Amino acid sequence: MSLPTLSLAAPATAKGPSASRRHGRGFWMVALAFLTAMAFSTVPTPLYPLYMARDGFSTFMVTVVFAAYAVGVVISLLLAGHVSDWVGRKKILIPALALELLSAALFLSDSSLPVLLVARLVSGLGVGMITATATAHLQELHAVHRPGGSRQRFEVVSTAANIGGIGTGALVAGILAQYVHTPLRTPYLVFAVLLLVSIVAVALTPETVEQRLVKPTYRPQRISADHGDRAGYIAASAAGFTSFAVFGLFTSVAPGFVAGTLHHSSRALAGAIVFAVFGGAAVAQTLTNRLSAPLKARLGLLAQAVGVPTLLVGMHTANLAAFLIGGVVAGIGSGVLFKAAVGTVAAMAAPAKRGEALAGLFLIAYLGLSVPAVGIGVATRAVTAVTAMTWFTGLLLVMLAGVAVLFRRSRAR
């Protein structure tokens, strides 16, 4: 998910036109690696119904496997997401990509439930290291290649690689699973090759952090909610939770809903729906970049409030078009609302504590990614998928109303 850049390290400077060109090429190589890693994180998404059909997994077990990924991301964000500011970007990116490659190897080695859980946990650990580091590396490479230039290229490319990559992985995996003879192996083989290429590409990219003679004493990323506007921080955190709740829905149980409730078993279709949702989020984040945070928050809340009920109508009526439209609108709302949350927290926090403020935001957001999805999985053990989604929609609408009230109180203060 989209993560802002907050580099506290001293960036290395290019010396001469040839060095600047190297940074320009490095920008695109890191973007490719970033996109590949984020795409790999959603390769299992359209494959979950195949695991369910072959091994008898329930929707609940699918959400548990997905939650292992979110746990890995949170652990990594807290323990390693900030370390590249001290040791350099490449020293974090290359091991993180290697973790993604290890995850692919685990998926290929065995498809039993314990291995799937470990593979998703390892993938989450890698992604937690990559998101902050790759975004910072892109920003610094862009700044050296185009000193004094607009940040627009960096912002568009980083968003496309991050959010767009998540959708791309599901789309590619869905198409491969639909048209190859070994759908539970080929997608991982393809991405294993791409991850190897990404490791080589990052290794050839210029470093942008100057080595320090004395490195700071290691400590986990600090988290704090005390940043001068507690109501605004709580509002932004709640917005992050609700935004990621929708993202978690589409990267865990939505493909199963498409196959079961809507009776469309195509893996390519499942991947295309996830791609449409995250593609809509990425485009919306880019197009609304110049809007103020309050306006983004209102647009995001409205789109989510319209999109998720429309999606639910599609499930009640077994209407694929309504499900897809609702999903895309909800994805747009989630992308814009989370962008507003990040902007709000970044603006209120003092520079020295901005990392702590955003770490807290992302911790709560990733709880939103996993907890509601697991809740839906638990509910489907007792009720139908449609009923579980009805409960989810009702709770989400209540949370959205609460977020709106909190933002209003924060602005009033």
UniProtKB/TrEMBL annotation:
Stored Gene3D superfamilies: MFS general substrate transporter like domains
Keyword Heme belongs to the record: no
Membrane topology term: Multi-pass membrane protein
Keyword line: Cell membrane, Membrane, Transmembrane, Transmembrane helix, Transport
Transmembrane segments: 27-51, 57-80, 92-109, 115-138, 159-180, 186-205, 231-257, 269-287, 299-318, 324-350, 357-379, 385-407
InterPro entries in UniProt: MFS (IPR011701), MFS_dom (IPR020846), MFS_trans_sf (IPR036259), MFS_Transporters (IPR050171)
Official protein name in the record: MFS transporter
Organism: Micromonospora vulcania
